[in-house]
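Encode chain A's predicted structure.
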Amino acid sequence: MKILVPIKRVADPDNANKIKVSAAGQIDASGLEPKLNPFDEYALEAALRLTENGAQNKQREGEVIVVTIGPKETETTLRGALATGASRAIRIEADGQDPDGGVTAEALKALVLAEKPDLILLGKQAVDGDSNQVGQMLAEILDYPMATFAATIEEEAAGTLLVGREVDGGVLKLRLTPPCVITVDLRIVAPASVYSKHTARTHKYQEGVRFAPLPAIMQAKKKPLDTKPLKELTTQPSVVTYDRFELPKARKAGAKVKDVAELVQKLKNDAKVI
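Encoded structure for chain A:
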């Protein structure tokens, strides 16, 4: 199986509380370490599981291609993905632009038509913008079947993919025939969430994503990493821009009550919500 995994570098989400908003309404994330978007990290792990025998995961049974849009500095993120097991990488040079979801989807469409992967596997959203739209847009313009919020993926003997989607009240099972698009949620990296047709169903992965050993990090420097200008993939302009950001208004601290009667009294007389 050939899998394309779009990834994005974001400011360290574990320290998002340190992000500041300037007087001009601009985001200031200086001092925060750039990291791979967590949901994209989960998508990469799922792709690696789908292209291996879990008991012998040093041998790739397919090809995983990672792609990102960004400046040369993002190649560090791509190299990290290569070190964990991806086969090759592509960086789309955006010339200082910050493409919106529509432009990103159009660029990925051009890559898909050129690479012809069996599966495009994405995180459900990027934690900086939280727009949750690129996967859906890409499936629409490619006219590919799609499953969103995937918690489980099982490759069947016939080559179809049985996907468990997290929905209100339970899990919805969908069977997709490649080529297709899947976006993943955080439970995709549970020990028994993803199985390729090469992996015994009795096999259990470690919880979470894998980490690259030092020899793999060194070998990743020799793996192919190509660069493509954004304008060669799409000339569509971004239509979504951010003018300014504002912090939410500060709220008064909550108050403790000694019993239900006092709670009702405060809700009625102070908060005036009942």
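The first helix runs from residue 38 to 50.
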